[in-house]
Specification:
The complex is a heterodimer of chains A (424) and B (554). Chain A has 18 helices and eight strands. Chain A is of the alpha/beta class and 424 residues long. Chain A has one domain. The longest helix of chain A is centred in the middle third of the chain and has 25 residues. In chain A, 61% of the residues are buried. Chain B has four domains: 128 residues, Rossmann fold; 121 residues, Rossmann fold; 96 residues, 2-Layer Sandwich (Nucleotidyltransferase, domain 5); 141 residues, ATPase, nucleotide binding domain (Nucleotidyltransferase, domain 5), CATH 3.30.420.40. In chain B, 39% of the residues lie in helices and 17% in strands. Chain B has a five-stranded mixed beta sheet with strand order 11-10-9-12-13. In chain B, helix 13 runs parallel beside helix 15 and helix 16 crosses helix 17. Chain B is elongated, with a radius of gyration of 27 Å. Chain B starts with a strand and ends in a 7-residue tail after the last helix. Classes of the chains: A alpha/beta (424), B alpha/beta (554). Chains A and B meet through helix 6, helix 8, helix 9, helix 16 and helix 17 of A and helix 4, helix 5, helix 9, helix 15 and helix 16 of B. Chain B: This is 2-hydroxyacyl-CoA dehydratase. Chain B: InterPro entries: ATPase_BadF (IPR002731), ATPase_NBD (IPR043129), CoA_E_activase_dom (IPR008275), Dehydratase_Activator_Redct (IPR051805), FldB/FldC_alpha/beta (IPR010327). Chain B: Keywords: Iron, Iron-sulfur, Metal-binding. Chain B: Its cofactor is [4Fe-4S] cluster. Chain B: GO terms for molecular function: iron-sulfur cluster binding; metal ion binding.
Chain lengths: 424, 554
């Protein structure tokens, strides 16, 4: 259960959504501005500084989403955003806004708004909130919508529908399942067309030099992040359960921005400064982390017993950007993502993380509505366990408590930890 | 001859036939998904699960899948890991249909052809390729209904065709694959390039990027109504249904299935009510009004109670009875009849049966679905009503009325019990309070609790947790009432319902639910003295029509 203050804010937002969406928007904008201010000037001492820095940056990104209509670019999570950063257009990640709304205890009216407009109950809750934001009018129309077919069907459906609802232009990048030279050329061509689309709808010319610089920043960000993983592989970090979701932002919609580079640099430096020591059990977490779930936070937050050492969503590609060939480079990132292609590719990435980060076990989190994750769950469990990593397939929901059995999830996670501790 | 299984209309059937393959559409429902859920998950598209079951059940050795959706990709992954098939291939299908996509698909077709030819030890046969093109299935000649949306299983199609008053055309992706024959003179790479374009040029399914042409599917002059099918845990088609609902002027009925064999119960009620709405119902099985008698009756044979209304020939209510149905509809009806004082079967000129058990009442002279009967009864009781909300023991429904009491549209809850009387009964048991007490207990709430679970089983554990956290029964019941209200309001929204509202069914006696629903809808609910009797009253009015020769849907 969220704090009383957050609950009150959530209730106040919920009360305004049906009749006065602009008031709900103003409340949320103010709240996220305050988060940005707090993270910059009064960061909590228990949370690593780099995380606070990134929290501030993402909070400001959420403010952009809720600011004046027609400013931001609404993007899907895997869309390469260097073109936008090069043009100074803020990319807004609605799934990220879903995380923020859940943390504000304000998700319920948006889920209801989506379901009232025919969105099926079995649909991904992040995308339900996204559509609820559009249907309710709380999120104003962006300048345009850019999306990829990666990594799931919901991208295809939600962004098309949201763009229709907002009445704004929409561009989709189709990412083939197979990674081949033809596929690289196919995606690179679409990314060039996307750059032209963005230029046309903003009236701004894209400078090749600015794009090259954005890709260089992406390269440095990725290098810092991989350095962080090297350091983390031999260290314990007292951290929040959901912290790696900040890395997901930094390595996707924020990739190519100075903020993402700064975050990854600070993160690597700060973790490198910690003593080389292990404490408690180490988990690799596959898929998203449930922001709403305090019962899981009680187990996983700042704990000496257990820590999440990596999340596959932040580690879906290792391809270093090639600033000399920006479009082909971004295309290879999409095609090479472990969320593209067969399930085996993703399972192997999780296995690689588990080995490299000296994990004791893996949690394969089946977020409600994510058929790719749930469909691969047994394949993953068998493969990971055969490689010596006990695996918990945990059914839950990243942002809708209504689809999760809180008590049962806690029991399963605790029993899993006891199992890992028994192996010691 | 080994069959080669496929599921998607973009599968290059002609190419596979030209290489000696024998393509067979996998489209059978499954009685359960024990294998599929063991290798994937229960929260997984039911069609994809049925494909896995069919592969196992039939011992299929060859399968070509298309990268059509998240679930089919995972079907490929688990089958590939199991390694039990002789030939398994996933063809990558672009989301776009432009020139670049065509070139990409052509490459993919070349690779598939090479793999299949190597497996079979055959070569591409140009004559067999050309011979494999067959014209699209013809539409029925006269008026017809179309089933569209997500793939409909063979059993569902058979039931729809058997129960429908008009021929049913299958316009789902399983039933309207159509490619033109290849132009003469093309061969080699040019022929394959044309073929890739022809595959991509089909009427798009919902996973494609450009779906504007899908409207052509329903632009048929003799089409009288649309049966829109969605599959549990397949999300694509609920989006199209929602768009279609606001766009089409044709009557539209949504059917959601889980790719298991469908029981005739709710499906036939929906189909018959749809036919009544279209005024297409055939002659009733029994229709002999008995002249010279003083009364008519309507019997609503529900899952929990059987309700009986008796009218005199002037249309005034003379008697009524509400009894528990028990295990058999016939016995429930006889019990209701026996509960009447001074009126027996010999006094009844006509008896119209409605409700789930309507076809099991031997003394009924006609049958009408509960949708049409509720509409009729509601209009009789409160002519201003434009939307009937009925929450019964097992299902809930919303019926939109025109000014004459005719059915404009209706929706029913799916198989799930959430939001029905049964849900409240189960929760009363968990809370250890009497069902009657539930109606008022929630009115004394102090803390606003949210029961967010959509599933009855999850909601039960949520309630148990709230009890453990020392929340009062009143607060919990209030939360439950609100959850029923949210579910019901969503049905109203789905039906396109607007006030004035009238509520019927046993749950209309529950003040807490009524209040929560009024708040949710922002409008009052009109509730008669005996809300459970509305369906029986409508049925009795249809019986009266027979006696007074007005006719009616029965």
């Amino acid at each position: 259960m969220a704090s009383k203050l957050v609950q009150s804010l959530g209730a106040a937002v919920a009360a305004q959504v049906p009749e006065h969406p602009e008031r709900a928007r103003a409340l949320l904008r103010t709240a996220y501005r305050l988060v940005g201010f707090q993270m910059r000037h009064l960061p909590p001492k228990t949370v690593p500084g780099a995380r606070c820095y990134m929290q501030g940056a993402t909070a400001r990104s959420m403010v952009c989403a809720l600011d004046k209509p027609g400013q931001a670019a609404c993007v899907s999570i895997f869309l390469p955003c260097e073109i936008l950063h090069a043009l100074g257009i803020p990319p807004v990640l609605p799934e990220g806004l879903s995380c923020y709304l859940v943390s504000t205890a304000a998700e319920r009216p948006f889920i209801a708004a989506a379901e009232d407009h025919g969105v099926p109950e079995s649909y991904c809750s992040y995308h339900k909130i996204l559509l609820g934001l559009a249907e309710s009018g709380v999120m104003p129309p962006p300048r345009f919508v850019l999306s990829t077919s990666l990594a799931c069907d919901a991208n295809q459906l939600s962004f098309r529908r949201a763009a229709q609802r907002w009445g704004v232009p929409h561009f989709t990048v189709d990412v083939p399942w197979e990674d081949s030279p033809q596929a690289v050329a196919y995606v690179a061509q679409q990314l060039r067309q996307m750059a032209a689309f963005v230029a046309e709808h903003t009236g701004r010319a894209l400078s090749e030099e600015a794009l090259r610089q954005a890709l260089e920043r992406s390269g440095r960000t990725l290098a810092h992040y991989r350095r962080y993983l090297e350091e983390r592989a031999v260290r314990h970090v007292s951290d929040e359960m959901t912290s790696e979701m900040l890395s997901v932002f930094a390595l996707h919609s924020m990739l190519g921005s100075p903020e993402a580079e700064e975050y990854a640099r600070r993160l690597a430096d700060q973790v490198a400064a910690l003593p080389r020591a292990f404490r408690g059990k180490r988990l690799v977490w596959a898929h998203t982390l449930p922001h709403w779930q305090d019962a899981l936070r009680e187990i996983l937050n700042f704990s000496d017993r257990v820590e999440i050492v990596a999340c596959d969503m932040a580690c879906d590609f290792w391809e270093a950007p090639d600033p000399a060939h920006p479009y082909e480079s971004m295309a290879r990132r999409l095609l090479g993502s472990c969320f593209n292609g067969g399930a085996r590719r993703r399972v192997e990435r999780v296995l690689e993380l588990a080995r490299h980060l000296h994990a004791d076990g893996v949690v394969w989190f089946c977020h409600w509505g994510c058929k790719q994750t749930s469909g691969a769950s047994q394949l993953a469990r068998q493969t990971l366990e055969a490689a010596g990593f006990p695996t918990l397939v945990l059914d839950g929901d990243g942002c809708d408590a209504g689809n999760a059995n809180d008590g049962q999830m806690v029991t399963r996670l605790q029993a899993f930890l006891e199992q890992l501790e028994g192996r010691a | 001859m080994k069959p080669l299984g496929y599921t998607c209309k973009y599968t290059p059937l002609e190419l596979l036939e030209a290489l000696g393959g024998h393509p067979v559409l996998l489209n059978q429902e499954s009685c359960g998904f024990p294998y599929a859920e063991r290798v994937t998950h229960n929260q997984f598209c039911c069609h994809a699960k049925a494909v896995l079951e069919e592969c196992r059940r039939t011992g299929l050795r060859e399968l070509v899948l298309v990268n059509c959706c998240d679930c089919i990709r995972r079907v490929y992954d688990v089958l590939e890991a199991a390694g039990e098939l002789d030939f398994l291939y996933l063809l990558d299908l672009p989301h776009h249909a432009d020139g670049c996509s065509r070139a990409l698909l052509k490459d993919g077709l070349e690779r598939l052809a090479a793999a299949y030819a190597a497996y079979r030890g055959t070569r591409f046969d140009p004559a067999a390729f050309r011979a494999a093109f067959s014209p699209a299935p013809a539409l029925p000649e006269g008026d017809f209904l179309a089933v569209t949306g997500a793939r409909a299983g063979a059993g569902l199609l058979e039931t729809l065709r058997r129960r429908s008053p008009l021929p049913v055309a299958d316009l789902t992706c399983g039933g309207h694959r159509s490619l033109p024959p290849p132009p003469e003179g093309l061969e080699g790479p040019q022929l394959l390039d044309w073929y890739a374009g022809a595959l991509l040029g089909q009427l798009p399914c919902m996973r494609m990027n450009e779906i504007g042409r899908r409207s052509e599917l329903l632009e048929q002059p003799r089409l009288r109504g649309i049966l829109y099918h969605t599959v549990k845990f397949c999300d694509y088609y609920s989006f199209e249904y929602e768009a279609l609902r606001s766009r089409t002027s044709l009557p539209l009925l949504k059917l959601e299935t889980d790719f298991t064999p469908q029981g005739d119960g709710q499906l036939s009620t929906r189909l018959e009510a749809f036919a009544e709405q279209l005024d297409l119902r055939g002659a009733p099985a029994v229709h002999t009004a008995r002249r010279g008698r003083r009364y008519v009756a309507g019997i609503d044979s529900g899952s929990t109670t059987t309700n009986l209304a008796v009218l005199d020939l002037e249309g005034s209510l003379r008697a009524s009875a509400i009894v528990r149905t028990g295990p058999k509809a016939r016995q429930g009806a006889e019990k209701a009849l026996a509960a009447l004082e001074g009126i027996g079967l010999d006094d009844l000129a006509a008896v119209v049966a409605t409700g789930y058990g309507r076809s099991h009442i031997p003394f009924a002279t006609g049958q009408v679905t509960e949708i049409t009967c509720h509409a009729r009864g509601a209009h009789h009781l409160h002519p201003q009503a434009r939307c009937v909300i009925d929450i019964g023991g097992q299902d809930s429904k919303v019926i939109c009325l025109d000014e004459d009491g005719g059915v404009k549209n209706f929706v029913m809850n799916d198989k799930c019990a959430a939001g029905t009387g049964r849900f409240l009964e189960m929760m009363a048991r968990v809370l250890e309070v009497e069902l009657a007490e539930m109606g008022t207990l929630g009115l004394r709430w102090e803390t606003d609790l949210t029961i967010s679970s959509i599933c009855t089983v999850f909601a039960e554990s949520e309630v148990v947790s709230l009890i453990a956290d020392n929340h009062s029964a009143a607060d919990i019941v209030h939360g439950l009432n609100r959850s029923v209200a949210v579910k019901t309001a969503a049905l109203v929204q789905r039906a396109g319902g607007c006030g004035p509202y009238l509520m019927t069914g046993g749950v209309a006696r529950n003040q807490g639910v009524v209040q929560a629903l009024e708040e949710r809808l922002g409008a009052p609910l009109w509730i008669g003295d005996t809300p459970d009797l509305c369906g029986a009253l409508g049925a009795a009015l249809f019986a009266l029509d027979h006696v007074t020769d007005k006719g009616g849907p029965a």
